[in-house]
Amino acid sequence: MTTAGIASLTMAVQVLGKKASATMRRQHEDSCKRAMTWLEQNWTVEKNPNHGDSWIFYYLYGVERVGGLLGTEYVGDHPWYLEGAKFLLEKQADDGHWNQNNAEADTCFGLLFLARATAPVTGDARRDRATVLDSPTSPDVEFAVRLADDGCTMHLWLSSVAGTREGDRPAAWPEVRKVEYLVDGAVVATIEDQGPWRARPCFANHRCDRNGLHEVRTRVHVAAADKSADPKVLESAPLSIEIDYALEPWMLPAATARARNLILEAGAVASASSTHKTFHAENAIDGQESSGWMYDSPDKNDRTLTVRLRKTVRANTLRLSQTHGLAKNAGIHDRIERVAVQFDRREPFEVDLAPDETTPTVVRLDESLRIKRIVLRVLQVAPGGTYPGLGGFAEVGLEQNP
User: Most buried one in 187, 215, 252, 387, CB count within 10 A?
Assistant: First the structure.
């Protein structure tokens, strides 16, 4: 936490800028000097000082924050990046991950260190996503796409229309009436009445809000030889683009769901008809998406989770997320497709879960209900490719939303 303290103090002073008093700056300098002395005296990249192997990768990321924010390449006489990078490369598994306490978190911290991720805060680095993707060759229309630094915004432009392109000297340029850029079959940008094309790029931007593979096409409407006739429509060949960094609509609500979960506020106990190893029922109501309950039974009648709240709550929304709902784990375990839900002694009703197991299923109830018990019975699953018969819920939540 010493590294976290240095980073927090330094960011606070940087944000305050001229508003930081001289006294405050002296206190900051004194605190950082004493903290850096402690780091120097306890220096190591192979252990978390005073904590051994516990959260070593989190500690290393803290060191990177200190180096980046203070603009120093050394802790005492130690080149922190060189020593840390050497340690990480030696400890990295063959498939690329690190795992001391938690594979996902450790790998993220390792990458943040190696990428010197704090540099962009001070304006010293930029991610390079400048690769230009060209559509397949076509006699009608060709276009190009470059992904912006955010990894989900497409910059699109024309590179050829009716066989003409930049540098050509045709007898007559195609008369462009309209340009349409399409993503997954839907028009996302339109440019009207361009006149003679003359190799103008007709730029457009489109920000994707869904990750995965997208098909991009371009349609160009050109004037027919007979000006009274309808324009001729030229279409490009499709170009496939993989998007990994889109902020999908469900993500921010999911990230803040813990604060709205009435089960955590009321307190609860959970039980299950079957349990796989340490994936206990209580894990589904602990507020942690990284844990979860898993059933261990091929019998669909033995896949029930019961949550009993310590006090009644009023809720109009049920939120369910599946255990191991990570993209890298897709298809390994059972993907729950349908579940029967019962609140207290009310009639059960069935819910179809989101087809993407990484996406939480949010059920808006017809009205606000007073709820003290929830029974979830798994009715239908897509069997896991690696571990069929294993599946469950990472979190069960109740919310009262406007």
Answer: 387
CATH class as words, domain 132-243: mainly beta
Among 159, 156, 135, residue whose Cα is nearest residue 208: 156
d(CA 396, CA 376) in angstroms, rounded, equals 10
pLDDT digits over 342-376, tens only?
A: 999 999 999 999 999 999 999 999 999 999 999 99
Sequence letter at residue 376: L
Question: In the chain, how long is the greatest CA-to-CA distance?
Answer: 84
Give the Cα separation of 285 and 318 in Å (integer).
13
**CATH 2.60.40.2060 domain range(s) in the chain:** 132-243
The angle, 0 to 180 degrees and rounded to 10, between the axes of the packed helices 22-41 and 56-70 is 140
Q: Torsions phi, psi of 182, nearest 5?
A: -120, 135
Whether the Cβ atoms of residue 258 and residue 287 lie closer than 8 Å to each other: yes
Q: What fold does the segment set 251-399 form as a domain?
A: Jelly Rolls (2.60.120)
Distance (Å) of CA 95 to CA 92, 115, 325: 8, 18, 20
